[in-house]
Amino acid sequence: MDSIVSFQHVSKTFGSKTAVNDLSFTVERGEIFGLLGPNGAGKTTTLRMLLGLLAPDDGDVHVFGGALDERKKDRIGYMPEERGLYSQMRVWDCLVYLARLKNLSTAQAHTRVENLLKRLELWEHRAKRIHQLSRGLAQKAQLAAALAHEPDLLIVDEPFANLDPVNVQLGQELVREWRAQGRSVILSSHQLHLVEMLCDRILLMQEGRAILYGSLREIQRAFAPNAVQVRGRGDFSKLPHVTAASENAGVWQLTLAAAVTPTEWLRQVALCNAVTLEHFQIAAMPLDEIFVRLVRGESAPTF
User: In the chain, where do the E strands start and end?
Assistant: First the structure.
């Protein structure tokens, strides 16, 4: 894998409070990486060290293969949770100005800002001043500012807050397009259903430490190793090795005994005359349930 970001045993304290404690993780090229945790977990401090706004007390932070410098900063786009556009400037002028600060020529800035405003359905609002925008429109303008210089690493903190469902979908499409171009995205959000839809890997922090880190799909299956979803004809709750079952609209959610793997159970069901199986898949535990379990102190499974 080609690491864009690498934290190795990084710690940061403020007086007697440890904000980040021996944190290690990587962000790879061409992935969407979820940075998660309850309020006060250390996410903001982690992002500020990545961006060079804070220096770690211990450990190493590498971005694009080494220490962060001014040239590398121009390869990063950052959309903070605290919005920071110039409220009295017009949308067009503000975005062009910010793009120029990232060393784009005037012509490049005009072209990219125009494309983004049209893509984000902001073109008709380009002459408005930032303070005249609704919260949702201002949110999209902030995203446009982060994308205008086409960064190799995009960092977005609560990017979908204040957006209606149509614009949430538009934002998701843009994030996926960024990944498809081989760029990397760090997504920090409390909207876990969106993280679940978008992210390849996640890091869950609590009290400055990593308590869960890895592939999202592997994590979800590790938390529900013997859960399966099936559709078919017959009463699946009566089958051997089924310890719990619920059915809705012909789809069964089943928990299997620890003595049998889902693959072994599937082979047995294929030879069974009591039911007819039409669809089978290994279930994944929802990310919000995993989050709550771990934050409340449950141990993570090995995966």
Answer: 3-14, 17-28, 32-36, 58-63, 76-79, 153-157, 184-188, 201-206, 209-215, 227-233, 242-248, 251-256, 276-282
